[in-house]
Amino acid sequence: MSGSISPLAPKSYASMPALRGLRMATASAGIKYKNRTDVLMMVFDKPAAVAGVFTRSKCPSAAVDFCRANLPHGAARAVVVNSGNANAFTGLKGREATTLTAKSAATAVGCGENEVYLASTGVIGEPLDATKFSGVLDQMHKDATGDFWFEAAKAIMTTDTYPKVATRSAEIGGVKVAINGIAKGAGMIAPDMATMLSFVVTDADIAPAALQSLLSAGVDPTFNSMTVDSDTSTSDTLMLFATGAAAEDGQTRIESADDARLASFRAALNDLLRDLALQVVRDGEGATKMLEITVTGAESDAAAKKIALSIANSPLVKTAAAGEDANWGRIVMAVGKSGEMADRDRLAIWFGDVRVAVNGERDAGYSEEAATNVMRRQDIPVKVDIGLGNGTATVWTCDLTKEYVAINGDYRS
Amino acid sequence: MSGSISPLAPKSYASMPALRGLRMATASAGIKYKNRTDVLMMVFDKPAAVAGVFTRSKCPSAAVDFCRANLPHGAARAVVVNSGNANAFTGLKGREATTLTAKSAATAVGCGENEVYLASTGVIGEPLDATKFSGVLDQMHKDATGDFWFEAAKAIMTTDTYPKVATRSAEIGGVKVAINGIAKGAGMIAPDMATMLSFVVTDADIAPAALQSLLSAGVDPTFNSMTVDSDTSTSDTLMLFATGAAAEDGQTRIESADDARLASFRAALNDLLRDLALQVVRDGEGATKMLEITVTGAESDAAAKKIALSIANSPLVKTAAAGEDANWGRIVMAVGKSGEMADRDRLAIWFGDVRVAVNGERDAGYSEEAATNVMRRQDIPVKVDIGLGNGTATVWTCDLTKEYVAINGDYRS
């Protein structure tokens, strides 16, 4: 495992303001190692509205099952995130561990167990000893403080080489609201080591159903449009909480996602989700390049996204990027294997502004040198026009390097 | 690109007998380089029955289009295979090149253009100068000889580290028949360098429709059940020819694939296809391990195959294999992301004979050392029981190593 920071890491980190209605603390519960920070607790002073989207895996972790079951209740008082043990593929013991953790958190905070949310990353298949949380959570609840975002982002890192934070502000009906978020993830999944988790909190006053609509719509062009290695975690979790503290400033509660006053908030939220998602791609295991792949002219937006992901997940496209090789033949291959409608004789392909292929042939005016210059950049825009319809999509990925193989092949041995 | 032979290469090669009714020759046509063998010609003395299966890519090469168009005619007199230029993504010029090549071959052999079959591998997007074939094919037709299988297999190699040959015998109605085949391929696709091609010939007398049924049924559990890197070529081609020479020994022509006399032939053909397919996997770019992944207990055979391919194509499963890591958590992940029905609490997983997980939990009796010993082998059997139904499938793949990244990342630069 490399100890160095991704070359694609942000040059500077956002200064993260405290967010009204939320306090956080970290601690060492000794889940896997002694004296290592392995628990993050988020505490909402009053019940916060809550929304969540989770892994589509058919084998989700016990924590994902637990969160899904609590969501219809719509209110959150505490979030407990642990590293060192994913509590996935742990059967009945896994469910017992989530129950016990929720009980400990509920006792510490003084709330119902259905107001607790859980996320776990780490070794899978290993029973999680949830008794370790009991005393710890009490103390964390007492210690929790508002100005703690950066520390929280660091606490949930695994193979990440940098903490992922983002903040935005928006207005609702003239009242200023804030949105803060953190994320972790470097492989989309690598059981025992990495998984994608993200927690976003706003002080806006928004009802759970509206919050869920905003989040579900926002995740598709952001977190669900990026891929590091095509492998989907059993534990992927993205949650959005609304503390409602902005009501003190006169913000009227938003009940519906269709409310016109949400325009600014929706834009800021989507921008923040995109920011966090791109930070995850840019920390992709072994990454040296970020590829932004835009597909236009597909039969539908869904078809465009399937083609774009076929390109983004192709090992041959990703190794070519690592080699700074403007290998558009591999793009053609990936379009062809996607299964979506494509007419070879209408395809056009660009690296940056350099059109390398058009009408199913190499572009006569194409300069290999110009294309290679684009490939030498850290951020490489790739555009493919299918020439059939109006469907478009943009997805992000990173290159596939020997370092990725080293991180994932040398890990447990 | 590594110059060494795959550690998984066969310890010895089959001795390939001549096959009645077929002659072959190789030559240098100067397609990409001077003085390098780059054309293989197969000539059938009399029209052979023909069947073919081709890439499912939506962007197939001009040669694939050409073969598909000729197949309904059902008879073959000549096959021309060139390396150095894939004639893929070459638009109208690509079609002109296939027409001209077919014309040259038809003139040389004295047959119709619809009795010619073509396959090309090499650079994509580069127009193929088919005029280079004209004089060459005449001479090849004159030089063609029967005892040439091993040379033919070597002539079509690209990133392959060893030639792929196989031979079987069978009987039809008491008459002995032979089946010979060659294949090439090391990446499922790597435009500019590699693609999967295979040509199989029998001296049995079998009508085209029956031959096509046999081939279409045979390809699913063999060539379509292996993956090196999940990338599908624009040029994948598998063809089966029947010269009918066994009629001289009294074999009665087979008109239907349902004919009971085909039992021995079908078994031999499928065994040969499996042999060639496994040789391709074992020569996977950078491979040091071969994984045989068997899924049982899925809802259907199709579901089992989708789950098996999800495991076989997972970069994290493949890098774990390279690291000799019995990382069954990544198997759970790959089952979960397949999209097929799976119940975490019924899953069981084996490496070789070592059951590592059962009923959705780590197997209590599981020995990490025993599992690691299995991972140290060159050939690693992985078995997953879904516990839901009777669907089964077996697929083959290889590990993902730094050498794969080197071969495909360093290639054009």
Describe the structure.
Two copies of one chain form a homodimer. The termini of chain A are close together. In chain A, the strands form two sheets. In chain A, strands 1, 2, 3, 4, 5, 6, 7 and 9 form an eight-stranded mixed β-sheet that branches. The first copy, chain A, has a seven-stranded mixed β-sheet with strand order 8-15-10-14-11-12-13, sandwiched between helices. The longest helix of chain A has 20 residues. About 2% of the residues of chain A have low confidence. Helices cover 30% and strands 29% of the residues of chain A. By secondary structure, chain A is α+β, with helices and mostly antiparallel strands. Chains A and B meet through β6, α8, α9, β13 and α11 of A and β6, α8, α9, β13 and α11 of B.
In CATH, the topology of the largest domain in chain A is named L-amino peptidase D-ALA esterase/amidase
> Using DSSP, what is the number of strands of chain A?
15
Count of spatially separate domains of chain A: 2
Low-confidence stretches of chain A: 188-194
Question: Count of DSSP helices of chain A?
Answer: 11
Q: How do the helices and strands follow one another from N- to C-terminus of chain A?
A: EEHEHEHHEEEHEEHEHHHEEEHEEH
Distance between the termini of chain A: 12 Å
Second rung of CATH, namely the architecture of the largest domain in chain A = 4-Layer Sandwich
The overall average pLDDT of chain A, rounded, is: 89
Give the CATH superfamily of the largest domain in chain A. L-amino peptidase D-ALA esterase/amidase
Describe the global form of chain A: globular
Beta-strand residue percentage of chain A:
25-35%
Oligomeric state as shown: homodimer
Structural class of chain A: alpha+beta
> Mind summarizing the main beta sheet of chain A?
8 strands, mixed
If interface size is counted as residues with C-beta under 8 Å from the partner's C-beta, which chains form the largest one?
A: A-B, 72 and 72 residues
